[in-house]
TrEMBL record:
Pfam families: Pkinase
GO molecular function, one term: protein serine/threonine kinase activity
Domain of life: Eukaryota
PROSITE patterns: AGC_KINASE_CTER, PROTEIN_KINASE_ATP, PROTEIN_KINASE_DOM, PROTEIN_KINASE_ST
Any one GO cellular component localisation term in the record: cytoplasm
Family recorded in the similarity comment: Belongs to the protein kinase superfamily.
Biased composition (Basic and acidic residues): 8-22
Binding site residues for ATP: K63
InterPro entries for this protein: AGC-kinase_C, Kinase-like_dom_sf, Prot_kinase_dom, Protein_kinase_ATP_BS, Ser/Thr_kinase_AS
Keywords, alphabetical: ATP-binding, Kinase, Nucleotide-binding, Phosphoprotein, Serine/threonine-protein kinase, Transferase
UniProt-recorded name of the protein: Protein kinase C theta type
Region Disordered, residue ranges: 1-22
Gene symbol of the encoding locus: LOC100488761
Organism: Xenopus tropicalis (Western clawed frog)
Amino acid sequence: MCLIPQDESAKKKSRVEGRRPPPLDIRSYKFHRKLGEGSGGKVMLASFAPKKQLVAIKIVPKKPNRCNYPWISMEAWLSKIARECPFLCHSHATFQSKAQAFFVLEYAGGGTLYRMISRKKNLPTKSIQFYTAEMVVALQFLHSNGIIHRDLKPDNILVDNDGHIKICDFGIAAAGMFAGWKIRGLAGTPGYRAPEMLSLEAYDAGADWWSLGVIMYEMATGRKPFVPSLDPAKEFLDMKLTKVDYPSHMSQEMLDLLPKLLEMDNNNRLGVNGNIREHQFFAGINWSELEKRTTQTPFKPKIQPADKLKEIKPGFCAETSEENKLEDFTYVDYNWNWQE
Ligand code: ADE
């Protein structure tokens, strides 16, 4: 039997049942629909009820023996760093219940690049130039902070309510990757993984530049340059044997840039070797304007207001517990204007 002194048990009870500040209480949010499946958990469209403000909530179940706690903490830390870059998805708040960790993320209402590519097949060169340039800014920001994303793919690239890019999902990112550091381990998604990762060598930020090359190719053609496989050795072999098919409709600048990103030798890959911003493909981009988010976007999505969306009841547990607690997790971004 567990004997808890009377006053201790009362303290515990009030912590469990007491009302938390609205942004840190799952009961302050209305849920509308599932947006997708992220690394470690699902992402739901929700609204912060007091202000009818749309947000995306990533829900990560806490695993037994705390085995996914280091990943959850890493993602929380990265989502704080992300707010320094306009092309990374910011988190408004993070909090937890006994069973789940919640990430309240800014909602990007333009959908994913995956959906855009599936619908349009090939995007206009101007749009590819714009989206790629914003991704370049985001990647250079991450890399200069010693972070590699490791799972760049069109499903993780969102278009926000103004039509700008937001890279999301830092669930498998690697930190501490400053110049000269390399990491091992297969990560990411078939079709987007760099050859050095597939051949189980140590890799660095060059792996993200490879994925960017794959994404650009997909935006331009509606298909992938190499055959994805769950078997890394098979995928690697296909890369070694395939001569990439560059269609004749691609611009000369893109035809010059893509092989420099889809370069098998990561030491020679553009991004690692040379500044990609200087490539002719980006001629006409005013990088300082772009970084300020003042460049005109290819399109501006229409967003349905929160009160026009139907509500679903996913039934999360709001109860907290000292036993399964993630330390230093709970946080509200001071820039989030959540007060009524
Ligand atoms: N899918 C995953 N994360 C999302 C977000 N923050 N906004 C919109 N859709 C998403």
